[in-house]
Amino acid sequence: MSGAEAPRSRRAPEEPALVLVVDDVADGREICAEYLLFRKYRVATAADGREALGKAFDLVPDVILMDLSLPEIDGWEATRRLKGDERTRHIPIIALTAHALRSAHDEALAAGCDAVVTKPVMPRDLETEVRRLLTDLVAPHPRDPETPTPTT
Amino acid sequence: MAVARLKALPPPGAGSGTGARAKLALLELLLAEQDARGCAALALAWLSRHAGVERSLCAVVEDGTHLVGLAGHGLSSSVVESFRLDLSHRSHPLVLALVSGEPVAFAGRGAQVFESPLATDAFQAVPLSRGEAGETGPGLLLVAGPGEGPSEEEVIWAAGLLGVRLAALGYRRAQAEERRHQRERGWLLGIINAVSDPILLTDADGRILIANPGAERLLSADEKMSEGRRRAVALNNMLFSASLFPATEEGVPTPKELLLVDPIEGQDLLFEVMSTRVKVRRGETGTVSVLRNVSDLRRASEEIEENYRRLRAAEAQTRAERDRLDLILNSALDPILVTDAEGKLVLMNPPAERMFTIGGSRSSRAERWVRTNDAVFTSFVSNLYTGPSMRWRGELTLVDPQSGAGVPFEAISGKVLSRQGEDTWTVTILHDLTETVEKSRLYEQVKRHSEELREKVEEATAELAEQNELLRRQAFELEQASALKSQFLANVSHELRTPLNAILGYTQLMIEGVSGELNQNQEDKLARVDANARHLLSVINDLLDIARIESGKMPIQLEPVRLPELIDEVMTEVEPLIARTSLEVRRDLPGGVPDMRSDRKKVKQILLNLLSNALKFTPRGSVAIRVGFDDRHVWTAVTDTGIGISEENQKRIFEEFAQADSSYARRAGGTGLGLSICRRLASILGGEITLVSQQGIGSTFTLLLPLEVAPS
């Protein structure tokens, strides 16, 4: 993952990382954005796949949080296009999905996502994952795709 | 010599006593006479007439050994013939007289010495010729006369003449005999040589004395012959001698076979040798062998034998063929009949006999049926005689004379022609159609039945197909329904998670102080919101698990599972729960628990569930975890001293949303789906969960898992 060096050079070391939050549900966008800003990240948002692609090519964010069920262009397709483009190939993408089925998780990885997180997800856990990808791009942590669920 | 002697004859008329004419007459008579005996008789007769001789005897030397009587005058013929004097008696007066060559006169004195053939002691012995000293003359003339005796001069003259004449005759005879012998020998040799079979005479030592060309060809060799031929001849001689010796013994000659080699052609020749013993010379024997070439004969006889053998073989073959034909004819199940040109039956096989003879039953009915059959058959065959065709085929019905039953036959008649093209026989074969008729009837029946069967099967098949189609449609619908259900559940899960995500998210934002500082009361209330939202999420997750298990979409990931390690993890996770209680929690793990090959996450889920249940439903006392194993299974028992489960509830407890005590459950939390899911998961992993419980005392849940999940 030598390509990962490029984005870091684009931002000054003191400058906070830019996270692009893509979710068609306003609540989801707001919770993520508000928490990440609270944790001193820079945040951009997109409500569908087309907008996400546009902002990704424009801003070249450091991490993308990608909901998979999106109007216009869905998250899988958007991920494929980003990973197929020289300019955005290096950007780590965390897939967010409310689909708890295994197939959804596998398809996300197949499309090129670096990690998959099942909703609902606690903002704190999400931030931990973002930080992990930013500092540990070489070997993505083999994380459980399903959110650990409390036992009854 | 004889001529010389003749020239030495005294001239006629030289004698004094008798007239010259008489002497000349005797000379002529003797010359005209060719026989010795005749000459002697003439001379004796002349002497009796002209020289006063009364009795006389002429004796001649025979074989040089004896003096024998040749002719006599005035004597009986028996006296002449019986006269025989051995010359070896040298002292005999007559022998002396013969040897001396001089006339001797005996006058009675010699009567004591020998008996005179002339019946008187007074006689003269005159040698027939004056032989030289020591030489025996041809003979002796004995004469006796009446009175003073015959005229000596006439007697000596006549004896001289007769001696010369006899000597001459004797020479000629010897010559003639020699010639005759030679002629006869020539003839004999001619005969022997003319015989192509080898003939030979051998002496006692096997040496060849006489051999004809045939024998010489085989047994004689000369310098000019090649080495090979000489060797062949030597070999032949050896073989011949070997065959000869036993045959020279006394006994009846028997032909023997002898194999020789033709030295010229080189081929083997087989001879039949006939050997006969013969006298060769005085006291010596020889063997005459006649060899008959039987090589050709042998070949011919072998050919004859071979021909005979062939003839026998052909005969045997013919007989075998006839036997075979008989066998075929007799073993044929169809009646076969042969009729001659006049239509008379000449041959039939046993099946035909059954139809055309009355057989054992001598009933008049049988006889009548046979006559009927004859008539039917004759009329059928007559078709063939009236028409030009060689074959006739038709159907006829005969009656079995035994049973009286009508038998349908198919009949085929064929003419058999001689080489000259004349009709000789007709062969008819009858084929019983009863079976065919019966068969075709049965066949029709079977066909009808099978047709019915086929229709029934078709009907049933159609019905079955219809039902199959129905079932298939139903199965498809069920499948679709199941898929729809799964999809529905997935959708529900998705739709529930999205708002839940917002609730949990906003709650946390506030608890974390992202939206500003909160007072204690607000924070407590938000904690309750958070707890309820999390519970709701658990219910949703459990429902999704059940849906996945039911639709068979629960994936299994097999990997090595180290149970003690897993139990440590579970203990760590429930640490907060334990901390809230005053329970004593014990672990009892033996050493050497084998690794399982199973789905680690699912095993953990089950154990977590069982342990947290025990902690939740045990107000006081203890919770113990024990592990046991054998060579195929590992089991984990979770025992508590909790409220226990009544017997009636022990079955219900594994059903969805079933909790033994609803009120208590609500207090303890839980979805009521946990045990149901655990039991299903255990089943997926090839194991089971059992329960032993007593109300008020406690429960023991045991998870039994195989060391290796059997492939499903």
Structure description:
- The complex is a heterodimer of chains A (about 150) and B (about 700).
- In chain A, helix 4 links the parallel strand 3 and strand 4.
- Chain A has about 150 residues and is α/β, with parallel strands linked by helices.
- The N terminus and C terminus of chain A are likely disordered.
- Chain A has 6 helices and 5 strands, in the order αβαβαβαβαβα.
- In chain A, strands 2-1-3-4-5 form a 5-stranded parallel beta sheet, with helices on both faces.
- The longest helix of chain A has 13 residues.
- In chain A, helix 3 runs parallel beside helix 4.
- Chain A is about 40% helix and about 15% strand.
- Chain B is of the alpha+beta class and about 700 residues long.
- Chain B is built from 19 helices and 23 strands.
- In chain B, the strands form 5 sheets. A 6-stranded antiparallel beta sheet of chain B has the order 3-2-1-6-5-4.
- In chain B, strand 10 and strand 11 form a beta hairpin.
- In chain B, helix 16 packs antiparallel against helix 19.
- In chain B, about 25% of the residues are buried.
- At the A-B interface, helix 2 of A face helix 12, helix 13 and helix 16 of B.
Topology:
The complex is a heterodimer of chains A (152) and B (712).
Chain A: H1 5-10, E1 18-22, H2 26-38, E2 42-46, H3 49-59, E3 63-67, H4 75-83, E4 93-97, H5 102-111, E5 115-118, H6 123-135
Helix pairs in contact in A: 2-6, 3-4
Chain B: H1 2-7, H2 20-32, H3 36-50, E1 55-62, E2 66-73, H4 77-82, E3 84-86, H5 93-100, E4 104-107, E5 122-127, E6 139-144, H6 152-194, E7 199-203, E8 208-211, H7 213-219, H8 227-247, E9 256-261, E10 268-281, E11 284-293, H9 295-331, E12 336-340, E13 345-348, H10 350-356, H11 364-386, E14 391-399, E15 406-417, E16 423-432, H12 434-511, H13 520-550, E17 559-561, H14 563-573, H15 575-580, E18 584-588, E19 596-598, H16 600-616, E20 622-629, E21 633-640, H17 647-652, H18 662-668, H19 674-684, E22 688-694, E23 698-706
Parallel strand pairs in B: 18-20
Antiparallel strand pairs in B: 1-2, 1-6, 2-3, 4-5, 5-6, 7-8, 7-11, 9-10, 10-11, 12-13, 12-16, 14-15, 15-16, 17-19, 20-21, 21-23, 22-23
